[in-house]
Structures are given as structure tokens and as C-alpha cells.
Amino acid sequence: IADRIIVTRPASDRGLDPECFDADSKKVIKTESPCIALQKALSIAGPQDLICATGSLYLISDIRKSVKQKS
Questions:
Q1: CA pair distance 23, 29, nearest whole angstrom
Q2: What's the pLDDT at 23?
Q3: In angstroms, rounded to a whole number, what is the distance separating the alpha carbons of residues 67 and 49?
């Protein structure tokens, strides 16, 4: 279903380290911040692609801030 999966963690201490995810898959891209994850997703997505952000409210809040800064 997904061409790429980008994993990251929120600015909270409660977030799981992205290194805990399976690194063997070429689909998985690990980043250290939601802002970098969003930038990476935008850079690899085509005009007809969908970017889906999912996770905790902490993570979504961090991504929302990044989106607002870009607008």
C-alpha cells in the first residue's frame, strides 16, 4: 500500500526511538524529528501522492506546527 514509510518521534520523551523500527526494508526511512520527516515526505511525494501522518497527539502537534510555518 505504501511506497515509503517515514518513522520519527515527537519532541516528547515518551516517543519511541526510530531506530527500533526494522531497518532492513528499503521502504523505511528513519528521521529524528517530525519537521525533517515532513520535509522528506514532501520531497519524495509526487503531485498525485498522498502523505498520511499518524501517531500520537504529540507527534501530530509537531507536524501541524511545521505545516503552519510553511504556509
A1: 8
A2: 66
A3: 17
Instruction: Give the span between the Cα atoms of 48 and 51, in whole angstroms.
Output: 10
Which DSSP letter does residue 3 get?
A: S
Cell of 26: 528499503
Q: Which amino acid is at 48?
A: Q
Greater confidence (25 vs 3) lies with 3
Count Cβ atoms below 10 Å from residue 55 Cβ, excluding itself: 17
Longest dimension (CA), the chain: 35
How many alpha carbons lie under 13 Å from residue 30 in its C-beta half-sphere? 10
The pLDDT-based confidence of 44 (bands split at 50, 70, 90) is very high
pLDDT-derived band at 11 (thresholds 50, 70, 90) equals confident
